[in-house]
């Protein structure tokens, strides 16, 4: 039972950190745009981001388990990004640039 309480406390700390980060980003953007954002907007955006993080983490965990691994690889992330063409393009470009500058190979073995 103590582990569940610790997990809940960790989840609340992570949500708080996410709320803080989302709030900072929203503040920066609203200053640039000359508009205002309510605390309710920041809270709703934070909840939406949290839900997306949960979904992505579950998908990555499933891909990793299916491949018989315990570690998420670039291949898992690229498989996940196939749902979003724009994101997939950005990630492929980043990966190509990263590998082009002679960094170690980070793509999983086939």
Question: What would your notes on this structure say?
Answer:
With 110 residues, this protein is mainly α. The chain contains 4 helices and no strands. The model has no long low-confidence stretch (mean pLDDT 91).
Radius of gyration: 18 Å
What distance separates the N and C termini? 41 Å
Q: Give me the number of helical elements.
A: 4
How would the global form be characterised? flat
Tell me the structural class. mainly alpha
What percent of the residues sit in helical stretches (DSSP H or I)? over 70%
| Sheet having the most strands | none
* Count of distinct strands: 0
Low-confidence stretches: none
Instruction: Give the ordered list of helices and strands.
Output: HHHH
Please report which band the strand proportion falls in: under 5%, 5-15%, 15-25%, 25-35%, 35-45% or over 45%.
under 5%
Summarize the structure.
By secondary structure, this protein is mainly alpha-helical. Helix content is 76%, strand content 0%.
List keywords for this structure.
0% strand, 4 helices, mainly alpha, 110 residues
Topology:
Elements: H1 2-33, H2 39-66, H3 74-81, H4 85-100
Helix pairs in contact: 1-2, 2-3
């Amino acid at each position: 039972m103590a582990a569940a309480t610790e997990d809940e406390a960790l989840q609340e700390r992570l949500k708080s950190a996410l709320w803080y980060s989302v709030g900072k980003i929203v503040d920066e953007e609203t200053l640039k745009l000359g508009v205002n954002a309510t605390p309710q907007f920041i809270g709703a955006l934070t909840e939406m981001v949290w839900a997306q993080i949960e979904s992505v983490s579950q998908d990555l965990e499933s891909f990793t388990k299916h491949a018989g691994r315990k570690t998420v690889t670039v291949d898992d992330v690229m498989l996940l990004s196939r749902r979003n063409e724009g994101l997939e393009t950005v990630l492929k470009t980043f990966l190509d640039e990263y590998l082009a500058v002679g960094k170690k190979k980070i793509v999983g073995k086939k």
